[in-house]
Structure formats: structure tokens, C-alpha cells
Amino acid sequence: VIIVAVVLGVTLRKETETNQFQSVFLSRCETFKGNNCQKIWETFQQAYVNRDPCKVPMEAYDPLVTAAPFKPTCNRVMFWSKTKVVVHEFTEKTDCFVTLEDTLLGYVLDGLTWCGKEGSSETFTTDCPVWTDCENNTVSSFWKRVSAAYADIACGNVSAMLNGSIAVPFSPTSIFGSIEVKGLNATRVNSLTVVLVTEEENVTNCTDASLKVLQKELPAGINYGCEEVPESQLQECGSDPQRPCGSCW
Ligand code: NAD
User: Fold this and answer.
1) Mean pLDDT of the chain
2) Is 74 a catalytic residue?
3) Tell me: the pLDDT tens digits for 38-70?
4) Mean pLDDT in residue range 66-84
5) Cβ(111)–Cβ(100) under 8 Å?
6) Rounded Cα distance, 150 and 179, in Å
7) In which band, very low, low, confident or very high, does the pLDDT at 12 lie, cut at 50, 70 and 90?
8) Ligand 1 residue neighbourhood (C-beta within 6 Å)
């Protein structure tokens, strides 16, 4: 009886994890109208179910990106690195910039953890490997793949919000540094503007050595600019939704 109860309990728990995850996925997806969310969910699952959660390469999500493609976006793409809270506080309030998390796939999966297991058709949300556990991690491969797709559709003047309160605002090994910057298409992108968010106690400014590295990593032909913007100024800009785009820095 105990064994049956335990097996039943474990089975029910697994189903609940899949169902709970699926319902978050679908309800977030429905927020973006005009998508076949059931089809997107099935394509998403195929990337990782029944697989070792450390053996999911970026390419596993290729069919997902095909099923839910990113629309070309000119002059509004906003990348970020080490500024997750402040960048979204800002983009939430104004319609001027779009982060990956404001697109369908970014919005649906932001903040979630998921993985599969060999021999199982379930989606797990607990005991999944973390980013640093393995290279081909289920979740990190997703973010790498969609970040590459997002960089690929960027056009015109693009922006990146970096953190001026840390010693090294640009890291070539971050996703921004290793995937997004390198994935910009010089035939479509004119310029990259770094918005270096500063606080009262500035640690870095636009002359920082790491930003020289960033300039070198930019594909040839893309212009570079940098603006030091106090966090209070961002908050002020955000509080006036009528303010014209591009007038905050
Ligand atoms: P970052 O270092 O601030 O990382 C962003 C998030 O990714 C972190 O909050 C963390 O959840 C995770 N992450 C990334 N690298 C990690 C690592 N080595 N170990 C553990 N967790 C890690 O900035 P980044 O790496 O430059 O990535 C941000 C850029 O890439 C953005 O422009 C965005 O488009 C995209 N991105 C978004 C997410 C997300 O969770 N929404 C995650 C990764 C990448």
C-alpha cells in the first residue's frame, strides 16, 4: 500500500509540475494575441522533453523560433546586461524601447525554470540543473537561442542598458557580449548606444576599459555611442509617458 501510495504521489506530483508549467506558458502566451499557443507549446516541449537536461543545445530551440518568429524591429531594440530590474522598470512605462522580455517568447519564459528527463514525457520545474552546472543547460540554451534571434532582427539604432555601478559593465562572456553584440547584422544596424546607468556612487563611466572591448567586439560598420544616465533620470523619463522617444539621454 505504501509503495503504491508513493508511486501514485510521485506520478501526481510530476503531472502537476507539467500542468502547472503548461498553464503558465499558455496563459502568458494568450496575452500576446494572434498566436497559435498550443502549437508553440508543443514545439517548445520538443526541444527538451525526454532529454538529459544537460544535453539541450541552442539548436534544439530552432523549431520554436520558427514557430514563433521575432518581427524585425527598427530603432527600438533594447539589450541589457546586469540591469534586469532597472531596464524593465523603464521599458514598462514607456513605449519607446522593446526588450527581449517584451516579445512573445521572452515574455512567456522570463523567470521560469524547466527541464525534461530521459525516459519521461514530463516537464519538471524543480531539481533542474542551474546555468553553471553544464554548458548545454535546458534553460541557458533557450536564452542563448532567443537572444541570437533577437539580435538578428534588430535594425537601425539599437541600445543597451549596462550597469555603471559595477566594476566591469561589459563582459564579453555575458549573453549580451557573446551572442547579442556579435549577432548584430551590420547591413541592418547603424549604431549601438550604451546607456550606462549610474547611481550616486559611480564606479564606472563611459571611458571604462570594458567599453573599449565592447567597441572592438562590435561588427565592422556599426557606430558606437555611450551615455551616462543617472537612475533618477530614467525614473523621471518613465514617469512621463508623453515624453518623446529619444529625449531621455
Ligand atoms: P546578465 O548577466 O544580467 O544575465 C541575465 C540573466 O540571465 C540573469 O538574471 C540570470 O538569470 C541569467 N544568466 C546569464 N548568465 C548567467 C550565468 N553565467 N549564470 C547564471 N545565470 C546567468 O546579462 P547577460 O548575460 O548579458 O544577458 C542579458 C541579455 O541577454 C539581455 O539583452 C537579454 O536580451 C538576454 N537574456 C535574457 C534573460 C532573461 O532571463 N530574461 C536571460 C539571459 C539573457
Assistant:
1) 94
2) yes
3) 999 999 999 999 999 999 999 999 999 999 999
4) 97
5) no
6) 10
7) low
8) 79-82, 84, 100-101, 106, 110, 131-132, 143, 147, 150, 174-176, 180
10 vs 1, 15, 199, CA distance in Å? 14, 9, 49
State the Cα–Cα distance between residues 57 and 200, nearest whole angstrom.
Answer: 41
Tell me, what's the pLDDT at 192? 98
- CA-closest candidate to residue 44, choices 100, 101, 94, 114: 114
**Distance from the Cα of residue 124 to its chain's centroid:** 21
**Residue carrying the nine cell digits 524543480:** 126
* 3-class state of residue 189 by DSSP: strand
What is the pLDDT confidence band of residue 10, given thresholds at 50, 70 and 90?
A: low
7-39 exposure pattern, b = at least 16 Cβ within 10 A, e = fewer: eeeeeeebeebbeebeebbeebbeebeeeebee
Distance CA 29, CA 109 (A): 9
Closest atom of ligand 1 to CA, residue 84: 3
